[in-house]
Amino acid sequence: MPPPITSVAADDTAFWDAIRAQYAPSPDFINLENGYFGMPANPVRAALRRYQDEVDAENSYFLRQRWPQRLAQVRQALAAFTGVDAAELLITRSAVESLNIVLQGYPFAPGDAIVYAHHDYDSALDIVAALAARRGVVPLVVDAPRDPVSDAEIVAAYAAAITARTRVLLLTHIVHRTGQIMPVAAIAAMARARGIDVIIDAAHSLAQLDYRVPQLGAQFVVFNLHKWVGAPLGTGLLYVARERIADLAPFYADSTHAAADIDKLGHFGAVPPAPIMAIEDALAFHARIGTANKEARLRWLARRWMDAVRHVPGVRLYTPTDPARHCALGAFGIEGMAAADVAQRLMEEHRIFTVVRQLGTESIVRVTPHLYTRVEDVDALAAAIVRLAAART
Asked: Which of 2, 14, 186, 221 is the most buried (most CB within 10 A)?
């Protein structure tokens, strides 16, 4: 690893080659589907193995005698990284688990409304549907502009959906379907002024975008740590402002913690300690790169392939035109070709792995580079898209 730095160019070949050397992706294909979870760097993978051996060797002694202190240490590291108090953070298995804890524990009354968007994560939509069926919550849906001219245009769309019974706005920070970065702080400010709570799904934004949690302006935020933070698979995070913890009912039954103790929300039973311990190593690796540098590099890689195909006949990009409104994630389609066929041909003919996502009634192909992605990889994708578009029948 290079020494810690303050700023580096997104196209600094020597620096980013050194970073790429810290990963071990499969040589069998080009993986441009890094949105599901992020590959941990080699030092994190090595640490995970050491920790698992330590836990297995010490067995119950580790869990009963040493685990509480190690867990507190990880939470302190996460608090320093996110800019909030450790007592406001709960380590979970994923953003989906965190979102279930918040939404299903929120004090909705029958007839209360929740505003959400069609572009929100599928599991989030499932939770909203469950709240409607089980607790009489009224879902109010927003069609947010996909390529807005201003933040005000998006804020206005959410404001127009609010009714007198609206209790919660559910917001996605980075839309997993298209990569669009939503102006969550501006929307949250509008909602707070109307006495409405905001729950932010920041599954993709933590460590991909350069921000601290208080800047989001929400008292409830859910995260993944196994995406852009680079922690092992099966690690997530929940933030609840200290003064709001008592308002949430435990999703998992608990009788051992005080009402204002966030641990009341995390009665999961025995959990694997090794992946959680390795969060510290992931944060340390990330710190050697710097969030701003990471964000700039990921956006640069995304812009490289998108700009190369932007004006190709038959190719449509679904990611906002303004580079400030997206980072790593991007999506495209080819006129006259099903997205599933495009993804299949990219893999079979070009050994490039992508994923299909649904956007309303349309299927699209999502592309997500990573820090280990080479310039040649995104160039190969662009060339493959050009060939597929030219071969349309």
From this structure: 221
